[in-house]
Amino acid sequence: MQVSSNQLSPFGDFAVIDDQWLDDSPKEECGVIGIFAPNEDVARMTFFGLYALQHRGQEAAGMAVADGQTMSIYKGVGLVSHVFTPAAMADLKGHYAIGHTRYSTTGSSSLRNAQPFMIETIHGPLALAHNGNLINSMELRNELMEQGVGFSSSSDTEVMTMMLARNAEGTWEERIKHAMKKWVGAYSLVILTRDCVYAVRDPWGFRPLCIGLLPGGGHAVASEVGALQTLGCEAIRDVKPGEVVSLSNSALKVMQAIPPVLPSSMCVFEHIYFARPDQTWDGINVHHVRQRLGEELAREVGSGLGNEYADVVIPVPDSSVPAAIGFSHVSGIPYNDGFIKNRYVGRTFIEPTDSLRKRGVALKFNVINENVRDKRVVMIDDSIVRGNTTGPLIKLLKNAGAKEVHVAITCPPIAHPCFMGVDMGRHDGLIAHKRTVEEIREYVGADSLYYLSIDGMMRALKRKGGFCQACFTGQYPIPVDLSNVKTGFERVTK
What's residue 109's pLDDT? Predict the structure, then answer.
């Protein structure tokens, strides 16, 4: 077993700081990929797959590679292109690989929580990468510690890895099946042994996981179809809720480990914000959903923002672009670009001064003055979480000469935290938990504020159910301890 890591950023010892002052969107936890590719440079393929999943996490990345006998791992803090240099990948040889790109919750940005996790077991080396969140992770962790198991991280992924390692009975498929009976929550996993890649999805189907056929033989699984297309894969199907899929030869081996929970609870924010627009999940294309979200929003707003009341529709890039196009089409208000986004601003290693912090949004967005000057603007955005970005964006528009700024949001108010792998914070940090729509409008300084209804959102999805709506309704698919969120587990154990 070979282990290496990239512990230092190119900026030396500067601490990573939270970028919530720059971005008010929900935070996805990660993206995962798994590949079996005989006679291919599987590490290089994993790199490009992770690159296509970079939008799902910009804080850390890693991969583990196996050759049928041994396993090597490399991971580090930073973007995929920063972590995986040619030198770092030189020793990653084999036919089997898993990879991970990560966004951490608050207080847990450290190398020790980077994935995949790898350990030696009596059955051989084992590595695991995880997208989601176990809501019973603390209970499971305490149970393992009482049995003498130690932990090096604050991640529920390590808990899952240790549970698989502790189960001495049967095949890997049987050990995974046994563990799945105890895991409660959201998980789309890629698991690596010395001679197989396993793809695993929770029975509720919270997080996506797609299977593709490689052109040179073998298969790949990934959080999004776009990563598979980058590898030249022919998309086959999604890993179904409760399934374990084995990638170890030319034919897939599929096992329904535990029964699916019906109706499913797919994360609606994959369509609203997280996924790339080219993603198709459960037969639904993300771009088309986002455009329909804008169309439904325009219908619900109605004549209140017709041509006589507004002059231009602009999106907050990037996820809101299709919605703004749809809104413009239905409302009749012309579409135009209003913001230019600096896509290289994410989490930063250098603490800004107070004056720069106050201008945080201006570091990420610039206004095209000529497109908004002397105009009544409809600004389309995917969500308002904490309310710390919408107000500054409105101010940027008005400083650029906009006469009015009306805000339209393509989802209902987010009033409850997520326990299934999305970092939205606690109840007291959610602006819609504490305020009415009118109070939010006043707080952000909009001339008017509109949210899409739950019914409108489901019409855009062309589904009557099957999606988790807990962040809007507070009705969770799984009973949860409202006093705890994922950040609580990580803060306690860091």
Answer: 52
Task: Estimate the crossing angle of helix 437-444 against helix 390-399, to 10 degrees.
Answer: 50
User: Whose CA is closest to 29, among 168, 129, 136, 164?
Assistant: 129
- How far, in Å, CA of 479 to CA of 185, rounded? 10
Instruction: Please report the pLDDT score of residue 318 as a whole number.
Output: 86
Q: Which two tokens stand for residue 242?
A: 């409760």
DSSP 112: G
For β-strands 284-285 and 280-281, DSSP reports them as: antiparallel
Residue 459 near residue 296 (C-beta atoms within 8 A)? yes
Q: What is the pLDDT of residue 359?
A: 63
pLDDT tens sequence across 169-209: 789 999 999 999 999 999 999 999 999 999 999 999 999 99
- pLDDT for the residue numbered 350: 47
pLDDT confidence of residue 9? 34
pLDDT tens sequence across 16-67: 334 444 556 555 568 999 999 998 999 999 999 999 999 898 889 999 999 9
Q: Please, what is the angle between helix 286-301 and helix 454-461, to 10°?
A: 140
Instruction: Look at the chain and count its residues.
Output: 494
Residue 263 preceded by cis peptide, ω within 30: yes
Q: How far apart are CA 148 and CA 107, in angstroms?
A: 26
Active site (catalytic) residues: 30
Cα 304 to Cα 296, 318, 328, 371, 378, distances in angstroms: 14, 26, 14, 22, 11
Q: How many CA atoms lie within 13 A of 355 on its CB side?
A: 0
Q: Cα-atom radius of gyration of the chain, to the nearest Å? A: 23
The pLDDT assigned to 489 comes to 43
Output the furthest CA–CA distance in the chain (Å, rounded): 72
CB atoms within 10 A of CB 227: 30
> CA angle, 260 as apex, 258 and 261 as ends, to 5°?
125
Residues of the chain whose pLDDT is less than 70? 1-29, 104-110, 303-308, 344-360, 483-494
| Residue located via tokens 């290089």 | 44
Angle at Cα 405 formed by Cα 400 and Cα 407, nearest 5°? 130
15 burial class (0-12, 13-18, 19+ CB within 10 angstroms)? exposed
- Per-residue confidence (pLDDT) for residue 466, from 0 to 100: 94
Please report which residue ranges of 154-285 form alpha helices under DSSP H.
156-166, 172-180, 225-230, 269
Domains in the chain, CATH or no CATH each: 2-265 (3.60.20.10), 287-475 (3.40.50.2020)
Pairwise CA distance, residues 114 & 111, whole Å: 5
pLDDT of the residue at 372: 97
**Burial tier of 152 (Cβ tally within 10 Å: 0-12, 13-18, 19+):** exposed
